[in-house]
Specification:
The protein is mainly beta. The protein folds into two domains: 216 residues, Neuraminidase (6 Propeller), CATH 2.120.10; 202 residues, Sandwich (Jelly Rolls), CATH 2.60.120. It is 1% helix and 45% strand. It is built from one helix and 43 strands. The strands form nine sheets. Strands 28, 31, 32, 34, 39, 40, 41 and 43 form an eight-stranded antiparallel beta sheet that branches. It has an eight-stranded antiparallel beta sheet with strand order 29-30-33-42-35-36-37-38, with no helix packed on it. Strand 37 and strand 38 form a beta hairpin. The longest helix is centred in the last third of the chain and has 5 residues. It is elongated.
């Protein structure tokens, strides 16, 4: 028995027994604070005069002093590990679109003691949210450079000399990887990810030595972004909102378990936490006064924090396995241990180990056992051959459930793309599809999956396709039937399609982009 996980809705509030201390009192907003390595100074954005400047707040005196001022937007400051320099994003769109812009939003490096900044990147792109690697040799940042679509990638740049390198990316409109932050030991990068139709921002962990390996640390049902590591590497602070919260809040995640708590940060919206170098305090921004100002708090962190609840998950063995290597004679034998035999309806034809469906034919599996997935992962797999495209909806297979007659579906759309979809808790369509029309004239193995977090993905011959869906959290009871070759109501006949084999599994058969099966597995050296 393997274990999967379901995020438990537990809200733990942390406070120091004393109210947070307000650090700034400025006419505009004070945001995106970062603590100096010696603990004596905080750099932050200030929007007092119409532009956004960078100020340095001396914690002993409480007095700010300017670092970057003048026209333009200076954003997302971050300290170098030795405390001698600050990297930030800067844009100054002073010219019209007709005239053309000289630069986009690029990265700059300025001495912490003040002076002339040095440009690190250039071009009509958005480079933003920089952070240093622990050894100070690289800056990691978010960027739109070299992407054909409107996505965002995580890039890194040698501070001394060199060109930006894309590290985490997918060239797609619905994919943005932002605000990277490296762990103190340099093994992991945490970042915010937006991916897929109806998605929220989630916090992801990736390995710096293999960025394609990642693990989703937060539930996509509640938006989460802006991760910052504690100095000991045990915690991540981030901005998050869960249904029922009074507003945006500061959440702290124990990396070893995935358990989380919400900081008692006062009324209003709280965002963008940053740790003191000793890990005992946090600075964050809050708008209880009507403007965002900086506050400092000393949280009481538990020694241990349980993660998501474990739920037993069956092994990879199929709960439905129909093979058409032999011609069906009214019934198709289920090769799984569940006895979910298929019943042939209408004029199904057979040749060369595959069935073909006519407009009035289908194969139905009444009341199949083992397909009551609840909130757990599941996968469907089909070996098929598309003889021709018809620009019509064609159902390969679908699950008919009491809570939704279109509980999940594998089908071709009117643009000849293959889709796999599941459903949200309120039965909305959540789908993943191929990047273009499914190839004709060749045998293909296609796999559709829903994972424990409600992410829906589609694979063709083992290759993940770019369009995914998020929020497919329907609790699946025992189904009424599973239909092959036609929808339950007789629509969407699968004309021009041969089906060699069809399977249903109560587990993940494939995982996109190197996603680890468990947090424990991912964190291992």
């Amino acid at each position: 028995m393997k274990a999967t996980f379901v995020m438990a809705l537990h809200l733990l509030v942390s406070s120091a027994g004393a109210a947070p201390t307000r650090l700034t009192d400025v006419p505009g907003d004070a945001t995106e604070a970062a603590w100096s390595p010696d603990g004596r100074t905080i750099v932050y954005q200030s929007g007092d005069d119409g532009d956004t400047d960078l100020l340095l707040l001396d914690l002993d005196s409480g007095r700010p002093r300017p670092l970057v001022t003048g026209p333009g937007e200076a954003l997302y400051p971050a300290w170098s590990p030795d405390g001698k320099a600050i990297v930030y994003a800067f844009s100054h769109p002073t010219r019209t679109v007709f005239q053309g812009l000289d630069q986009g939003c690029n990265l700059m490096l300025i001495p912490a003691a003040g002076g002339a900044p040095r440009r690190l990147t250039d071009g009509l792109v958005r480079d933003y949210a920089p952070s240093f690697s622990p050894d100070g040799r690289f800056v990691w940042f978010s960027s739109t450079r070299d992407l054909k679509q409107s996505g965002v990638a995580v890039c890194r740049l040698p501070v001394a000399e060199g060109a930006p390198e894309r590290v985490i990316f997918r060239d797609a409109d619905d994919y943005a990887a932002v605000q990277p932050a490296l762990s103190p030991d340099g093994r992991f990068v945490a970042y915010g990810l937006y991916r897929g139709h109806r998605s929220n921002w989630t916090i992801q962990l990736a390995r710096t030595d293999a960025p394609e390996r990642r693990y989703p640390l937060t539930d996509p049902n509640w938006p989460c972004y802006g991760p910052r590591w504690s100095p000991d590497g045990k915690w991540l602070g981030c901005t998050c909102y869960q249904p029922g919260d009074p507003g945006w809040g500061v959440y702290l995640i124990l990396v070893s378990t995935g358990g989380w708590l919400r900081l008692d940060a006062g009324p209003g919206n709280s965002r963008s936490p940053a740790w003191s170098p000793d890990g005992r305090q946090l600075v964050y921004e809050n708008n209880q006064t009507g403007r965002y100002q900086l506050y400092r708090v000393t949280p009481q962190l538990p020694a241990q924090l349980p993660g998501p609840e474990s739920v037993a998950e069956g092994g990879a063995a199929a709960v439905l396995d129909l093979s058409f290597e032999r011609e069906p004679q009214g019934e198709v034998t289920d090769r799984s241990a569940h006895g979910n035999h298929g019943r042939v309806n209408g004029a199904v034809t057979w040749a060369d180990g595959a069935v073909r469906f006519a407009a009035d034919s289908s194969i139905a599996v009444p009341a199949p056992r083992g397909c009551d997935f609840g909130r757990r992962p599941f996968s469907v797999r089909a070996d098929l051959f598309v003889e021709r495209h018809t620009q019509a909806l064609r159902l390969i297979a679908g699950g008919d459930y009491p809570v939704s007659r279109r509980g999940w579906q594998l089908y071709l759309d009117d643009q000849d793309r293959l889709w796999f979809n599941a459903r949200s808790a309120d039965t909305l369509f959540i789908g993943a599809c191929t990047d273009g029309p499914l190839p004709t004239g060749k045998r293909l193995t296609v796999v559709g999956t829903r994972d424990r977090m409600g992410l829906v993905e589609l694979f063709v011959d083992g290759v993940a396709h770019g369009t995914v869906g998020t929020g497919a959290n329907l609790t699946y009871p025992a189904p009424t039937q599973i239909c092959l070759g036609r929808q339950y109501d007789g629509t969407m006949p699968a004309l021009g399609v041969r089906l060699y084999r069809f399977e249903v599994h109560p587990t993940m058969l494939l995982r996109g982009e190197g996603v680890a099966a468990s947090l424990e597995e991912f964190l291992q050296p």
